[in-house]
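pinned: reference chain
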Amino acid sequence: MLEELYVENFALIEKLRLSLTAGLNALTGETGAGKSLVVDTVALLIGGRTKDNLIRSGCDRCYIEGLFSPPFSQQIKKQLAETGIETDENLILCRELIRGGRSICRINGRTVSAGILRQVGRLLINIHGQMEHMLLLEDEQQLQLLDSFGGEDELKQSVEVAGSYHQWQQYQQQLNDYHDNKEQRSKRRELLAFEIKEIADASLTVDEEQNLKDESLRLANAERLLSFTADTCRLLAEDRGISEQLSEAVAALNKTAEIDKKAIELSQRLSSLYYEAEDISREVAAYRDSLDVNNYRLEDVESRLALLGRLKSKYGGSIEAVINYCRQAKEEFSALEEIDYGGQHLEEQLTKAKDAYRQTAEQLHNLRRQAADKLAAAVTKELHLLCMEQADFRVDLQPVEPGINGNEKAVFMIETNRGEGFKPVAAIASGGELSRIVLGIKVILAQLDQVPTLVFDEVDSGLGGVALNAVAERMAVVAKTAQAICVTHAAPMAAVADHHLHISKMFQYDRTVIVIKDLQGKERITEIARMIAGDKVSDTTLQQAEELLVKSK
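pinned: its structure tokens
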């Protein structure tokens, strides 16, 4: 609620500090005393339009500050969290106007835009009589209030509608993406298919490249290798070659060992050397015979190496990388195929989601229709109590595009006089009449509307007798669930207030200023007597004022 309002250099207000309480706060005073100026400062505090003529004459700027105490609704906390402002304790809104059109807005000391101030302000205060600050007149707010009035079943159903709408939109987005990217996926599949075939046709193995390089080196040097191996074979195996000489040496050493056993080990070693030479001779001959001097084979090997080089350059720098790329390409190709096959599945899911949304929205519509009839009857009865005997209230459920709140919006409609036809409550031109209508709605919806502070600017204007007493009584009902601030000229309204403030003008230091006083005891009785009799206050009117106060308790 609004706990304190501080104003400096606003119109006729030089400095003003206004302390407010829970319940009903009545602001009274002579006509032209400046009561509506207080309402104007509140309107400016919560983001109202600015003008240079609002700044006190002779001053360059004016300053307005409002102190709000918790608890705060989840809506307010969410709005402030998005701005980076925490609300665990008090909330301070500030507005400073600088001559020339500039405006500085702050929330808890943090500078914010006028738009943010307005969004937060309208969740803290409704000013009835100034349409730009009446959250109740907005279609979305009316729908929320209707759902809250409908009770737990309707609120649960509205949550189901929101969930089914999100599900529908999710499948719709997936299907849109599927269609939007269909051509791109097709081109990607074609490319992947080509790449997979290109790599698969190469029949790669990890160690092939090194083997080919070795073979290429041999083929390129085949003639030299033949020459080297021919020389080796000649030296090992021809007449008087190494093998023959070793054989003769072995025979000689064997004879030595027959005579002297100490030569046996040497004979054995030399025999091993001879057999090793024989093996090497045969293997070298076999190696020589295997050498291929076929130039066509060399061309094939070089061509194969060139192919491997192109694949490496294209797909990853090594044969292993190329093989891995092929594996990943196959996986991606399969995934794209699954997406294409999944298009029909998405169509089916989308159809189911649309049907589910239609069913839940239809169920919500039926619950809303029932709640709308009950709300219409309750508000109509309340308007009759407010002496609007010919008034008739109803809630129209008008179709809109399907959305998170269903297929409809709620519009509060009013017929103030029979035969005139129904009009949206927001279209009511008369401020006093609109205030009474809103007051009637507030009595029914007071516990559902989360705006903690309501400001009524002369809601009793033009009323008297029974109607005036009815408005005062209903205002007291509203003030039991929300803080109410009421500018009034009516004694019955002031009498039911929990807190009575008197506003007056005085001439001080060659300037007119506005002052405010908290009335208690006899001062309050005297003010209510003045409101009854004007300047002709008598013992009788004082007694009437006292009786009004006693009756209001």
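why pinned: The longest helix spans residues 319-385. The two ends are 23 Å apart (CA to CA).
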